[in-house]
Amino acid sequence: MKINAAVLEEFGAPLVVRRVELEQPRAGEVLVRLEACGVCHTDMYTASGVDPSGYAPTVLGHEGAGVVEQVGEGVTSLKPGDHVVTLFSPQCGECIHCRSDKTNLCLAIREQQNQGYLPDGTTRFSRDGEPIRHFMGTSTFSEYTVMPAIALAKIDPAAKFEHACLFACGLSTGLGAAMNTAKVEPGSTCVVFGVGMVGLGAVAGCRLQQAERIVAIDLSEERLELARGQGATDMLTGGPDAVEQVLEMTDGFGADYTFEATGNVNVMRQAVEAARMGWGLCTVAGVAGKGETLDIVPRLLITGRRVAGSSFGGVKGRTQVPKFVDLYLQGEIDVEPFVSHHLTLDEVNRGFELMEAQDGIRSVIHFD
Ligand SMILES: NC(=O)c1ccc[n+]([C@@H]2O[C@H](COP(=O)([O-])OP(=O)(O)OC[C@H]3O[C@@H](n4cnc5c(N)ncnc54)[C@H](O)[C@@H]3O)[C@@H](O)[C@H]2O)c1
Ligand SMILES: [Zn+2]
Ligand SMILES: [Zn+2]
Fold first, then answer.
1. Which of 139, 206, 238, 280 is the most exposed place for a label (fewest CB within 10 A)?
2. How far apart are CA 247 and CA 256, in angstroms?
């Protein structure tokens, strides 16, 4: 079929929205009609050409929500009409990682996905016979996409697509960092460094875990206000004295749980230093630049602080994303304030501009 998709043709240049060819789903694959898709930093990062593992041409986008249109041979977990959220982090349910409750890093299709192919090593997108690669196994800046069934979470159809799509990446990452990786205990003190989409999710996650005190730290007043709306009890302006301020608020000890959601290694260091002696746990969600390293004074570890990293919040997508969506439907997670702009697919590059200007939290593309 011929469809419209936003293609990264050339690094550093705007995406080109054009007609491309999409093949039928093969065995284990699903054709999804996208309804909404968030625009995320990772899309822009790849488009810029800075990401050394990036490839072109490819159809970008990974924060999608839509409807199953058709399933390939052998797919029993989904049927036409199901509402789904796309997962760049799949869940095969069978690999050694899927069978462990310690990690969400499914091993089933990693290699092919990282190179922009579906699990059988080919693409379904093409134009004039030339293959166009799949991005993050999702490629959701597109009216339709073909994805492995193990990378789709079936959700309650009552969820609005423009809200559901945010659970595909940043929001679930933040929620999961607090709920899965840190497993925040009731009554604890938490500090979240950086309250963009991921950090706001972490604030909400800390609240859902019944933290007593949630300190949000950011450079933007507007974002600190959003953090208050998600349950932050204290708001601080970030900067060189952020650690000192946290120590002052906690009788000199630091917080039970700290979260880093900026991607800046200096802030990661602050998050480690603001964690409490004895048992403070720092969870790093931000993605640092290639080659950057995190500096930690070893004494901080010996005296009981711990550091953990969190990919997609440790969320096993097919199992847990539907539960997050249910929490949202029950009114436990307020998603509306995260959707700042509504765009059409033709306006996808505008989404990058808005993100660069830090205008709002998320731009959502609507397909119709
Ligand atoms: N681990 C994962 O699976 C995963 C998933 C999605 C995104 N990420 C990463 O998480 C990070 C955050 O993503 P996002 O979408 O929320 O980004 P964002 O840019 O929307 O948010 C980052 C926030 O950090 C704030 N900030 C910058 N410098 C600061 C400082 N010195 N002190 C305090 N706050 C500061 C900014 O004002 C901004 O509000 C990025 O690095 C992104 O790549 C990781
Ligand atoms: Zn993302
Ligand atoms: Zn697996």
1. 238
2. 11
CB-side exposure of 31: number of CA atoms within 13 Å? 17
Q: Which of 147, 170, 139, 142 is nearest to 60 (CA)?
A: 139
Check if the beta carbon of residue 152 is closer than 8 Å to that of residue 78.
yes
Please check whether residue 16 is in contact with residue 118, taking contact to mean a CB–CB distance below 8 angstroms. no
**Degrees (nearest 5) of the Cα angle 15, 285, 12?**
20
Task: For residue 61, count other CB atoms closer than 10 A to its CB.
Answer: 32
Considering only CA atoms, which of 56, 17, 57, 12 is closest in space to residue 348?
17
Least Cα distance to 232 among 198, 192, 272, 286 occurs for 192
Q: Is 0.85 surpassed by the pTM of this model?
A: yes
What element of type H or E holds 129?
none
Q: Is 306 a catalytic residue?
A: no
In the set 110, 127, 213, 350, the catalytic residue is 110
Residue pair 83/37 in contact (Cβ under 8 Å)? The answer is: no
Q: What are the CA-CA distances from residue 217 to residues 32, 51, 297, 300 (Å)?
A: 38, 27, 22, 21
Spell out which residues line ligand 1, taking CB within 6 angstroms.
Answer: 41, 169-170, 173, 193-199, 217-220, 223, 238, 261-264, 267, 285-287, 310-312
The HSE-up count of residue 322 (CA atoms within 13 Å, CB side) is: 12
What pLDDT, on a 0 to 100 scale, did the predictor assign at position 52?
A: 84
Q: What confidence tens digit (pLDDT) does each residue in 51-68 have?
A: 888 999 999 999 999 999
Q: How far is the CA of 129 from the centre of ligand 2 (A)?
A: 30
294-300 contact pairs (CB < 8 A, 24+)? 294/265, 294/268, 294/269, 295/265, 295/269, 296/269, 296/272, 297/273, 300/272, 300/273, 300/275
> Hey, whose CA ends up nearest to atom 9 of ligand 1?
286
- The residue whose C-alpha atom lies closest to atom 17 belonging to ligand 1 is 196
d(CA 175, CA 361): 16
Angle at 246 between CA 245 and CA 248, to 5 degrees: 65
How big is the chain, counted in residues?
368
